[in-house]
Specification:
Number of helices: 9
Structural class: alpha/beta
Largest sheet: 9 strands, mixed
Helix content: 25-40%
Number of strands: 11
Distance between the termini: 14 Å
Order of helices and strands: EHEEHEHEEEHEHHEEEHHH
Radius of gyration: 18 Å
């Protein structure tokens, strides 16, 4: 096996099973070295907790990159998750320019919105900056809300394939090379992932479970990146990530008091099996 090294750039919530506390173990379980660049440190994530602490690490990012440049440290892929400001997006672009190996992949999860609205603290200036980052990436992993914001499309909860295809066409026009479009549902009781790679579109459908969990988007993106870096096709990586998320949600349903995240750790073995299949 060709041993790869990924850099992931996103915040770290010390408690809450999201962002870096998900990306590091999930990518590692895929058999890939996972380096990290925390964009901020929070005592917990922001959904359901109150009074959490927050330390912004934006100004540490250039110095870290300068040190990597001095040491000639390069990465086989860079994967970004939640970024807290437009300045961080600018720094990420610089890191991608200097720290990616030749032919390496830049993968962006434009984590900024869900359910038809932006996350707290984000505005349209941030959306415009995220458009530029997505246009420079090799793969993007948006949900429906994020895809609508990136393409200035009206968000709809009820839609058909033509609506989704129009959004994908707009993403391509924006400059996005390959799109992994999550949470796309064409019939009741099911959802799935549209994979648009090199101009070819495919769709992986799976059951829609009744319960949901915080952090599943981070789990999905991390599993996708890990599988892709291990040499799986984009479609197979999207399928593996979706199937693993289903296992995490099913595992979490066993504990009604586990409201703050997904119990992904007990089923990491299943992810390893999928990767090695």
């Amino acid at each position: 096996m060709d041993y790869k090294r990924i850099l992931t750039i996103q915040d770290i919530s010390c408690v809450g099973q999201c962002s870096l506390t998900v990306a590091l173990p999930v990518i590692s379980a895929c058999g890939v070295e996972c380096s990290v660049l925390p964009s901020a440190v929070l005592s917990t994530h922001t959904a359901g907790f109150s009074g959490y602490t927050f330390r912004d690490l934006t100004e540490d990012m250039p110095a870290i990159n300068d040190h990597w440049t001095k040491e000639n440290i390069k990465f086989d892929a860079i994967y970004t998750g939640y970024l807290g400001s437009t300045k961080q997006i600018d720094y990420v672009k610089a890191i991608m320019s200097s720290a990616l190996k030749e032919g390496a992949k830049a993968i962006v999860d434009p984590a900024m919105a869900d359910g038809g609205k932006l996350y707290p603290g984000f505005d349209m200036e941030f959306v415009e900056a995220m458009k530029g980052l997505c246009a420079s990436a090799d793969y993007i992993i948006p949900n429906l809300t994020e895809a609508c914001l990136l393409t200035d499309t009206e968000y709809k909860e009820s839609y058909d394939k033509e609506y989704i295809d129009t959004i994908i066409s707009k993403l391509v026009d924006l400059g996005c090379k390959n799109v992994i479009f999550t949470g796309v549902s064409y019939r009741e009781g099911y959802t799935g992932v549209v994979v648009m790679e090199n101009g070819s579109e495919s769709y992986y459908e799976h059951e829609l479970l009744p319960n949901s969990c915080h952090g599943t988007g981070d789990i999905y993106a991390s599993a996708f990146v890990g599988a892709l870096t291990r040499g799986k096709s984009a479609f197979d990586s999207a399928r593996i990530a979706a199937d693993y998320c289903l296992e995490c949600i099913k595992e979490s349903a066993k504990d009604k008091d586990h409201w703050y995240g997904a119990r992904f750790e007990p089923v990491l073995g299943k992810l390893i099996e999928m990767i090695n299949d």
